[in-house]
Design brief:
Radius of gyration of chain B: 22 Å
CATH architecture of one domain in chain A: Orthogonal Bundle
Largest interface: A-B, 49 and 41 residues
Distance between the termini of chain B: 21 Å
CATH class of chain B: Mainly Alpha
Structural class of chain A: mainly alpha
Number of helices of chain A: 14
CATH architecture of chain B: Orthogonal Bundle
Order of helices and strands of chain B: HHHHHHHHHHHH
Number of strands of chain B: 0
Shape of chain A: globular
Helix content of chain A: over 70%
Number of strands of chain A: 0
Distance between the termini of chain A: 11 Å
Number of helices of chain B: 12
Oligomer: heterodimer
Largest sheet of chain A: none
Order of helices and strands of chain A: HHHHHHHHHHHHHH
Strand content of chain A: under 5%
CATH superfamily of chain B: MetI-like
Chain lengths: 335, 278
């Protein structure tokens, strides 16, 4: 309990520092979207800046921004049209979240299975396949893999190349969130569910390449380490079946490092998805930050977007640490 | 490398493959002017032509010779990656050394800074830095990728110093009356070189991938420059019009180079620290 409280309390200054850092970083952006907007009326730009409070000192603006985010979940308004950006950021975040979760499930199922098998059968074909996945996943540019998947789907499978999250002809007026897959299951709308899965398949496969590589490697080495320990020999000596030893004893202990690495991958994927999203025109947060934020110099989109991703990252790490303490009591005592 | 380590390394076939791949790419980068039959930014007489005896890998949508661009791309990619890693070394090694050696408030400050940088997903952080730096060029990419790598080096060097600082030979150096700075640079640093070398090798691969990613997002060098990330981006944009194999040369070049650095880095780690090898 004390461990959990302390761990949660450490997160608060971290979040404050992250928001300060990203606010300071974008404060020095050369030019912003308003330059273009007021190109013909430079005098009204000064007035607009004053009205938006952009001439206040840095700390005042940052404090007001944080107050808005924490108090009203308000991520400031766009420099282009003065509309709030928070709603769109959250919608995009949900699209990225869904993609990340599906990719991670794929990585865990395939990478985990191959990792276990290659530890149990070293130097077998499955071990070499695992080795190949582990090396290819970290050496291939993820956007190149995405391009190859598109070419493969269009030419070999004869699929039309569309870039939607779901068939636009389906009636989805009742949907309140942008977590389409999750909500379609809850609402028993399996037409939407299947359409979502069909559309998410390729980007999820591409995005899963890196975590699959890491998880395959990690599972294999964690399993090998546990297989060499005394309790494994004891379990075998008791005459337990091979299957029971592997699944009930060895795998359960190997799960601790696997959980950690999966959690860490999740945080990284949320931000790293930007390349995959760009290849597949997936309407996610990373692509939104680059297109609407960086390219159009709309500062609130960059600040809000990166702040959201970094917060997710920190929170996921927090959850992983807490889970870790639940699985492994030794962590609690050390803290 | 001492004899034993060299022996371990030489017996490691995958590490040798990695060294070979890296060697080929460095050879291509150094000899680009001799190896490339055409200037990478001069129009040839055909557009989007398939491979032929004149143009080994065909020509692209600008009429540039793909093989020449690929060879010159090795120079751009390796230069970007080496420069970014050099930048990370230059900032990360002294900070990591001092943090690990001094401890106290300095260590705490540096490590909070490391935690802060690592709280941002690396690709997005590089994007934000590239945006702040403004103009899209190779220099921007080098700085953005280099800054993102800095916390990794600080953490690695600090960990290495913590392992070394209380060993007997450090105490011996102190007993001999060596000055603090001399102990740090002449005794501690040389004993931390192995993990630094391994990390530098592995992060060269990361740097190549990140740089290509930034190019793909439009934050890299201009569209005509011979760089692998740019080549991939353009090949993808003209995918509907061009022969699709045009995706292969730059993608394979990036993958094999990064694979080379990964295998080489793993091999070096196995040679220097047999305990950590898998």
């Amino acid at each position: 309990m004390i461990f959990a409280l302390r761990r949660i309390l450490v997160t608060v200054p971290m979040l404050i520092a992250v928001s300060l850092a990203i606010y300071a970083l974008t404060d020095s952006l050369p030019g912003d979207a308003a330059d273009m907007r007021f190109e013909k009326h430079p005098e009204s730009k000064a007035e607009w800046r004053e009205g938006r409070g952009l001439n206040d000192p840095f700390v005042v603006r940052w404090w007001r921004y944080i107050g808005g985010v924490v108090g009203d979940f308000d991520f400031d308004r766009s420099y282009l049209d003065d509309q709030p950006v928070g709603g769109e950021l959250v919608r995009k975040l949900q699209a990225t979240f869904e993609l990340t979760v599906i990719a991670l499930i794929l990585a865990l199922l395939i990478g985990g299975t191959i990792g276990i098998l290659s530890a149990v059968f070293p130097r077998s074909p499955i071990d070499y396949i695992g080795n190949f996945i582990a090396l290819a996943g970290i050496s291939m540019p993820v956007f190149w893999l995405g391009m190859l998947l598109i070419v493969f789907a269009v030419n070999v499978l004869g699929l039309p190349f569309t870039s939607n999250r779901v068939d636009p002809l389906l009636d989805m007026d009742e949907f309140v969130t942008h977590l389409y897959i999750f909500e379609s299951v809850v609402r028993f709308r399996f037409d939407v569910f299947w359409s979502c899965l069909a559309n998410i398949a390729l980007p999820a496969i591409a995005l899963s390449s890196i975590p699959m590589a890491v998880i395959t490697r990690m599972t294999r080495s964690a399993m090998l380490e546990e297989l060499g320990k005394d309790y494994t020999t004891t379990a075998r000596a008791k005459g337990l079946r091979h299957r029971t030893v592997i699944l009930k004893h060895v795998l359960r202990n190997a799960l601790i490092p696997i959980t950690t690495i999966t959690g860490l991958q999740f945080g990284g994927l949320m931000g790293g998805a930007v390349l995959t999203e760009t290849v597949f025109s997936w309407p996610g947060l990373g692509r939104y930050i680059v297109k609407k934020g960086v390219e159009a110099r709309d500062t609130p989109v960059i600040v809000g977007g990166i702040l959201l991703v970094a917060t997710m990252f920190i929170l996921v790490n927090l959850i992983v640490d807490l889970l870790y303490a639940v699985i492994d009591p030794r962590v609690r005592r050390e803290a | 490398m001492t004899g034993r380590r060299w022996k371990t390394f030489r017996r490691n076939r995958t590490a040798l493959l990695g060294a070979f791949l890296v060697g080929v790419m460095i050879f291509m980068a150094l000899g680009a002017d001799l190896l490339a039959p055409y200037d990478p930014e001069t129009r040839q007489d055909s557009f989007r032509a398939p491979p032929s005896s004149e143009h080994w890998l065909g020509t692209d949508e600008n009429g540039f010779d793909v093989y020449s661009r690929l060879v010159h791309g090795a120079r751009a990619s390796l230069w970007t990656a080496f420069a970014a890693v050099a930048f990370a070394l230059l900032i990360g090694v002294p900070l990591g050394l001092l943090a690990g050696w001094r401890g106290g408030w300095f260590d705490a400050t540096v490590m909070r800074f490391v935690d802060l940088m690592l709280a941002f997903p690396s690709v997005l952080l590089a994007v934000a830095i590239a945006a702040v730096l403004g103009e899209s060029s190779l220099t921007t990419v080098i700085l953005a990728v280099g800054i993102v790598l800095v916390p990794l080096f600080i953490r690695q060097v600090r960990a290495a110093v913590l392992q070394v600082r209380n060993l007997e030979y450090v105490a011996a150096a102190r007993a001999l009356g060596a000055r603090e700075s001399a102990i740090l640079w002449r005794t501690v640093l040389p004993n931390c070189l192995a993990p630094i070398l391994v990390l530098a090798t592995l992060s060269t691969g990361i740097a190549i991938l990140d740089a290509a990613g930034l190019s793909f997002l439009g934050l890299g060098p201009p569209e005509t420059s011979p760089e692998w990330g740019v080549m991939l981006t353009k090949a993808f944009r003209y995918l509907r019009h061009a022969e699709q194999w045009i995706l292969l040369p730059p993608g394979l070049a990036i993958s094999f180079t990064v694979l080379g650095f990964n295998l080489l880095g793993d091999g070096l780690r196995d040679a220097f620290d047999p305990r950590q090898s898998s």
